[in-house]
Give the backbone structure.
Amino acid sequence: MRAPSLLTLALASLLATAAPMAKAQSLIDLYESARAFDAGYLSARLLYDANLARAEQARASILPTAGLSAGATLTDLDISPATALNRSFNTQTATLSASQPLYRPGNWATYEQGKKQLDQARSQLDTAEQDLIVRTSQAYFDVLASQDSLTFVKAQKAAVAEQLASAQRNFEVGTATITDSREAQARYDLVLAQEIAAENDLRVKKLALDQLVGKAETLPRGLAAPLVLPTVVPVDVNAWVLQSETAHPGIRLAQSNFDIAKLEVDKAEAGHKPTLDLVASYNGSRNPSGTITNANGTRSTSAAIGLNFNVPLFAGYATQNRIRETLSLSDKARTDLEGARRNVALSTRTAFFGLVSGQGQVKALEAAERSSQSALDANKLGYQVGVRINIDVLNSQSQLFQTKRDLARARYDVLVGGLRLRQASGTLKPDDLQAINGLLVK
């Protein structure tokens, strides 16, 4: 019986890999699972909620405060022997007080800092969300790349086995030397080792994806064929850098830190400024059993409203030194902001040129795949007619399958690279996964 051809074996292996595709999950499905399970993202989400509450606390410094106090005392009076006075009486008091800051520059600076803290919390959560998108996509395509590698290794093993059988038959009939069989056997043993490594790599990549999304035995959908990779839009790297200056959460976080540092200077300078508060109180006192001078029950009430004005005069140079400290910290925050802008610009340019290079590699590998297939066909034909030896065919097979693996990996790298470019520029959103999801098998 004639051995199956290389194309038949490769197709059979690919079909076996795609057989369970009906129950496979899309990239968006697994991202939503990761969003609800990943500890890193959930921690960032809880920190965001805590920062929201902390930022709201700053508003209390400009709002009125009110308090209610009440008390009751029992007095036992015993005066002897002059008057032989012995009696008890109690006193009940209640006070309602309120205060409203009228002029407190430090409090208003604290309030403005609270609003900037809201921007900080939003920037930190955006950073965590973008990181989760990239991590999920990377883990998703790592599994697909490992699956492809295993598929190609198995197809190569079948092809080498076919070549080994052919070399043995030719040796038996005397048309080839034992060298051909030994070369094919050595290549077959090498492919077996590669298959074991590919199986383990796939197992590890699946475990990483399962842990990220909180599901067991995840099965990502593969890319549909034919595949048209998305282009880079806009095509000018400077446009991406310009977007990053206003959109990147790292820059927004550094800007908020700088604004908060400047407000801290205002708070320190407020130590030299006066304060003015509106205060009011209402007090009630009741002595149902009388007092020390009056045996009859009494009751009194009082109300007061006024202004409290305070002028700081000297604080042991603490205010001056505090101002110098905050000015230095403000300069540091300004420097950090400039450093963040430079780093983001560099990361954006690096991601952009990496993506463009990856797209060029895909085109080159597609051409290399066609050339490698032609070279393999030519070497197999030459081997059959006696102008090529077995090692030529084996080398052509290895080159073809290595090119296929590199091409598959390059395509996945381009897709993830597009997400990394958006992350580098700060424009990455969960909706950006829709375009990639549309390239998957339905």
